[in-house]
Amino acid sequence: MKHDFVENNIIILSKQTIDVILKQNHPADLIALYCFYYYTAKWQQTNQPKATTNYAAKGLKWGVDKTRKNKKILVSLGLIEDVQDKDEKGRIKGWYIKIKY
Question: 96 pairs with which residues across the strands?
Fold first, then answer.
């Protein structure tokens, strides 16, 4: 049975996270992308959502270049991380975004 707890339906950004983002150029874009990843994580009920660059770009109605640029900044700030899922033979099965709260 799936429960509809409030904590499963809200997205909370800490003051520290916002402070880090606001020090960057174009903080609104970074907040948008971070929130999109966080939203996707909540929807998929994980802290490592499957959210490709194309998926995020489409969801935000952005171009792929803009999405990649902002994703790279979020990675450099330590707010997200790219994660590969490999099979037993070492082949990549999928890419995920780890949200670092």
Answer: 83
CA distance 74 to 21: 8
> Tokens 């990649």 label which residue?
68
C-beta of residue 93 within 8 angstroms of C-beta of residue 82: no
Contact 53, 64 (CB under 8 A): yes
Question: The pTM is what?
Answer: 0.89
Question: Position 64: which residue type?
Answer: V
CA distance between the termini of the chain:
27
Q: Supply angle C-alpha 55, 42, 17, rounded to 5.
A: 90
39 and 19 Cβ atoms separated by less than 8 Å: no
Residue 99 has pLDDT above 70, yes or no: yes
